[in-house]
Design brief:
The chain is mainly beta. Helices cover 10% and strands 48% of the residues. The strands form three sheets. Strands 2, 4, 6, 8, 9, 11, 13, 14, 16 and 18 form a ten-stranded mixed sheet that branches. Strands 1-3-7-5 form a four-stranded antiparallel sheet, with helices on one face.
Length: 321
């Protein structure tokens, strides 16, 4: 009976802590390169004897730029070894959707918690064995943003830029705060499009570009159960209606679809921390839209993916007589 009441008291403290963590006085956290973060994962007690009951508690918060959907929590390292306490919490827990923070209203992102109660496994007598248990989170997230590329007619460049010793600005890249983002390749950080606008120049001109998908978060995408997989659309906008000459198998359209079959082996790179997948495309523009002018072409992108994060801890289990 004493152990039962101790366990109930501990669970009450955990739930109260979870409620306090969601109060209006909590500071707004924004992280540019993540969606959900596991803020805390602990076991109580952390050092136990064989047959003791351990309570695991994990707290997760949305610190990114968009809603996390279908958030699922699971405990790894207990199945087949530890014994789930009768009437306890399920191994896999659906935490629902979690709203993103809104700094304009000093509103933090949603915070949720998952709790598991397990009894230690049996081990041979006279030992103290460290056992690793891991909390994991799987959630659906979106990344959106825009890359703006200066696009200048050659005549305008020669009359307005060069005499003043100036060059057009390099690409501007804006991403949602999220764990997967689009970047310009390092070789294109100062890139701009120079359109030849003489009457003898070709009407339709093409220009190469290298874009990167980067895994900048604390885990990796694992959409459809496949590590590295994401889906999305890359869309061109600008004067004269630019289209993709070729991009991920798309031609003659302003939209290019990101899918596992279009990225091919490149998606494997997104399994790694700071991994990147390079997308090589060619933009087609009409020179008439850039005669004696300084304009911009915009590349909008919309990504969707399941993302996976985890956090381990170690419980010491003793079997001394």
């Amino acid at each position: 009976m004493q152990m039962k009441w101790s366990l109930l008291a501990l669970l009450a403290v955990i739930f109260i802590a979870g409620c306090v963590g969601q109060s209006g006085g909590k500071a707004v956290r924004l992280v540019s390169n993540d969606g959900l973060q596991i803020m805390d994962f602990f076991a109580e007690p952390i050092s136990v004897e064989v047959g003791d009951t351990v309570v695991f508690n994990m707290q997760v918060e949305n610190v990114g730029g968009t809603e996390a959907q279908n958030v699922v929590a699971r405990l790894l390292g207990v199945e087949g070894q530890w014994t789930q306490v009768t009437g306890g919490f399920p191994l896999i827990q659906n935490l629902g959707n979690m709203e993103a923070p809104n700094p304009d209203f000093n509103q933090p992102g949603d915070s949720e918690q998952a709790t598991w109660v397990y009894r230690t496994p049996e081990i041979p007598p006279g030992l103290k064995v460290p056992m690793q248990v891991t909390a994991e989170i799987l959630y659906t997230y979106n990344t959106s943003g825009v890359i703006t590329i200066r696009t200048v007619g050659e005549t305008f460049l020669e009359t307005e830029y060069q005499p003043k010793g100036k060059v057009p600005a390099g690409p501007q890249v804006i991403n949602t705060y999220a764990p997967v983002q689009i970047k310009m390749n390092d070789r294109f950080t100062d890139y701009y499009i120079r359109v030849k606008d003489d009457a003898r120049d070709q009407q339709i001109q093409t220009f190469p570009i290298l874009i990167e998908l980067q895994n900048v978060g604390s885990g990796f995408p694992i959409t459809d159960g496949s590590p590295g997989t994401i889906y999305g659309t890359i869309r061109l906008r600008g004067p004269g209606g630019p289209v993709w000459e070729e991009c991920l198998g798309n031609s003659g359209s302003a939209n290019a679809e990101i899918e596992p079959n279009t990225l091919g082996a490149e998606i494997a790179q997104l399994r790694e921390s700071r991994g990147k997948a390079v997308i090589s495309c060619t933009i087609s523009v009409n020179k008439d839209a850039f005669v004696l002018t300084d304009e911009s072409i915009q590349i909008d992108f919309f990504l969707i993916y399941r993302y996976y994060i985890q956090k381990p801890l170690t419980v010491e289990v003793s079997s001394y007589p």
